[in-house]
Design goal:
The protein is mainly alpha-helical and 197 residues long. It is 72% helix and 0% strand. It has helices at 7-16, 20-35, 45-58, 62-75, 83-93, 97-109, 115-127, 131-150, 160-174, 180-194. Helix 1 runs antiparallel to helix 2. The longest helix is centred in the C-terminal third of the chain and has 20 residues, at 131-150. The radius of gyration is 19 Å and the shape is globular. It starts with 6 loop residues before the first helix and ends with a helix.
Length: 197
């Protein structure tokens, strides 16, 4: 039996994969580790399958990555922000826009309080070139994060900046005029620029 895995070992494996062949080899290793977990692993099998899928994505094997992401979802273990986010992104990269939409609708109906779910899905749509869906997801996430802050849930304040920045970037790409949310970002950026050292 192999020894226990750490997060750093899994990350180092990705850093060392400098070609499609090395990414494929790393994916195979991660898949094998997921199949025979060590009780003291710091990384659960679902997370190992997600990382294996990311290696296949980097190697250009989008369909193979989707298979691994589906297995990660089926494992039923937590992979932040939500293991289905990785499957959604993989489906988009594989060209299964309808499958990605159905999964995104499932995530939306669950009304996740984690702003990173909205950010992940929104940026996946942005990378896929669907700026309207990206805008929709980033706006939903920003609205929920800011509403939570107003309701006294200050943990949501950590989610808001990333969502608002990504939303501003997408709105700019869409040619939309600045709105109140954009003003929050621009005023914060200008405040940082003129703040004394």
């Amino acid at each position: 039996m192999r020894g226990p895995l750490t997060d750093d070992e899994v990350e180092d494996l990705y850093a060392r994969a400098t070609s499609p062949e090395k990414h494929r080899a790393a994916a195979e290793k991660l898949e094998a580790w997921a199949a025979e977990p060590h009780p003291d692993d710091a990384v659960n099998p679902a997370a190992l399958l997600v990382r294996a899928g990311e290696h296949l994505t980097a190697a250009g094997d989008h369909d193979g990555a989707v298979v691994l992401f589906r297995r990660a979802v089926a494992a039923g273990q937590p992979v932040p922000p939500d293991v289905r986010c990785y499957l959604h992104s993989g489906l988009l990269e594989a060209g299964d826009v309808e499958g990605a939409r159905e999964l995104a609708d499932e995530l939306r109906r669950e009304r996740s309080a984690d702003g990173d779910v909205h950010l992940f899905v929104g940026e996946a749509y942005e990378l896929a070139g669907d700026l309207r869906q990206a805008h929709r997801w980033l706006t939903l996430g920003a609205q929920r994060a800011l509403a939570d802050v107003e309701d006294g849930d200050f943990s949501a304040a950590d989610d808001a900046p990333g969502l608002l920045m990504a939303r501003l970037r997408v709105r700019d790409a869409l040619g939309l005029p600045l709105d109140d949310y954009d003003a929050l970002v621009t005023s914060a950026l200008l405040g940082e620029r003129v703040a004394p050292d």
